[in-house]
Every structure is written in C-alpha cells, then in structure tokens.
Amino acid sequence: MSWKGILKADLESKILNEIEKEGGALGMKNLKQFGEEAEIKQTLSKLRKEGKIFMHEDGDIYTHNPESIEKFFGRNKQPQQLTKDGVNFTDQRALDTYNQNITKYPNITNILRGKTVNSSVIETAIDNAARMQTQNQQQIQSFQNQPKSKRKPTERDFRRPAYWGDIMEEWQNILKRKKKPFKGYNKKIHAKTGGLSAKGRAKFNRETGSKLKRPVTKKPSKLKPGGKAAKRRKSFCARSRGFKRADGTYSEKARAARRRWNCWIQIGLMFILLVVILVK
Predict the structure, then answer these.
(1) pTM score of the predicted model
(2) Which domains does the chain have, with CATH numbers?
(3) What is the pLDDT of residues 52-62, one digit of tens each?
C-alpha cells in the first residue's frame, strides 16, 4: 500500500473513532482538526458510499441511519421548527448555537431574520457577522484617529479653564509669526529696511557682472555737500523716480528702497520750500 493509501486509511479510522466517541453523531466542525476540508469531504464521501456513515439533512454525520431512528420513535421526517427573534430553527442544536453566539455577535439576528436555518447556516452567519463587526471596529478606530474638526465654542467651553489656555496659546502663535517688512520681501536677498542686502548685491553682481555698492543710508544733512556719497544718493533718488507704476504710485518694494536711501527727505524739503514760496 502506498503512503497516500495509508494516510487515507488513517484518516478514515480517525473520523469513525471520533463519531463513535461523540455517541454516534457529530458535525463537520468537529472534524476540521484532522486535516484539510477538501480531503475530509472526500473521505466522508467514500465512507458514505461504502455505507459506513450516514448524512442527515441538518449536516450532521452518523454511524447509523438517522431516518430509521426517527421512524422507530414515531417522528416525522420534517424537522421540528423552533422560533426565536424572528428566526426559524430546524432543531434544538441550531437554537443552542444561536443562543451561545447572539451576545457576542448581535448582527446574526439581522442576517437570519425570516429564514429557516440549521447549524451549518448559523455557523456561516456567525463568520459573516464577525467579519462585519471587525470592519466596523476598524472604521470607528480610523474615524477616531482623524484630527478633530474645529467647532464653535459653546457656553460650556467658556467655563473650562483649559479653553482660555487654548486661546492664549493661539494668540501667542499669531504674535510669533513675523510679518514681512514689505510686499515681495525675500530674506535671502533683501534687507528688512529695504533694497538689497549684502548677499543680494553679491548675487546680483555675480549673475549680471554689475558693481553694485552698499547704499548711502546717512541723512543728507550729515553728508558732505558735493561729496561722493551725496552724489550717489542724489543719483539714485533721481533714477528711482522711474520706479513708478502706471497709476503713478510706487510699489512697496520701491518705497522701501527709496526710504533706505532717504529719498523721501528730499521730496519733503522740496514740498516745504514750494509751500513757502506760494505763501510769499
């Protein structure tokens, strides 16, 4: 005899011993310990053809003919129906299985309501209910892990000390945010007071080959009249008048640069002088 034949014979003897051990009847669930489901079903089919076992309508396996026992006790072939929660059960075993699992898996009531079921159908429904319950728990957990959406504070929130702490923390974060000195400011090339920084001038000179120098930031009153710095400031202020936009105004970037060169002081003095002349 080959190894396969020995294994099959061993499986057959195990199944028959297990049925006798359980009093001559048991369900398919009790045989899963002996091997793969397909192999067990094949062995059961062989034993059934040989007349060693009998299969009942409810899926149970017997070493004797269950129909002959029912006839002996005067029972009908139709299985006795038991009802609970709108579910019809073919036998007491199915009802017991339902009662054992209804607390853990309450969804099986919705799955089986209005149906006539046996033990195998209930076991399938339990598997489906367990899978649905796991999916629901995963969805709830993922929803709880999502960041909480901002909501309007209620009167109850104002009574909580932690609420005012949250407000103070938010205000501190707002105050920490540094506002840009002017529109279009880039800290890599611009100075906070306006115009290009030393790094910005070096980058511009490197890319264009120009020779930009440091701006003249001293007030005109402290500059030597006719000196080199005074001439540079005067030249820049004259050239920067061309920075005006189509509507005749300066951009924030241009205003910041002219302010750094003190070009606005010159305009202010000219305006005062014009007013004095008109008054006279």
Answers:
(1) 0.34
(2) 3-72 (1.10.10.10), 82-138 (no CATH), 198-279 (no CATH)
(3) 777 766 666 76
